[in-house]
Specification:
Blueprint lengths: L1 H11 L7 E6 L3 E7 L5 H5 L4 H13 L6 E7 L1
Parallel strand pairs: 2-3
Antiparallel strand pairs: 1-2
Length: 76
C-alpha cells in the first residue's frame, strides 16, 4: 500500500524525490502520512480536494482485504 501511494504521488508532483510515506499502525486503523515538497502540497490536494479524495478512494479500494481501516493524511 505504501508503494501505491508513493507511485501515485510521485506522478503528480514536480519534486518526486521529496515524496515520503510514513506508516502509523494503530489499534483499529492504519494511517499513511504523505508528505511532499511544500510547493507541491496544492497539487496533491487539488481543486476543492478532488485529487486527495480520489487518492483516498483508490487506497481504500485497494485495502479491502485489510482487517483494519486505512486512512491517508497529507502532512506538510
Amino acid at each position: 500500500m505504501k508503494e501505491l501511494i508513493s507511485v501515485i504521488a510521485q506522478g503528480l508532483v514536480d519534486h518526486p524525490e521529496d515524496v515520503r510515506v510514513n506508516v502509523v499502525d494503530g489499534e483499529h486503523a492504519i494511517t499513511y502520512e504523505l508528505s511532499v515538497h511544500p510547493s507541491d502540497v496544492g497539487k496533491i490536494i487539488g481543486k476543492q480536494g478532488r485529487i486527495a479524495k480520489a487518492l483516498r478512494t483508490v487506497v481504500t479500494s485497494a485495502a479491502v482485504k485489510e482487517t483494519k481501516r486505512v486512512n491517508v493524511e497529507i502532512v506538510s
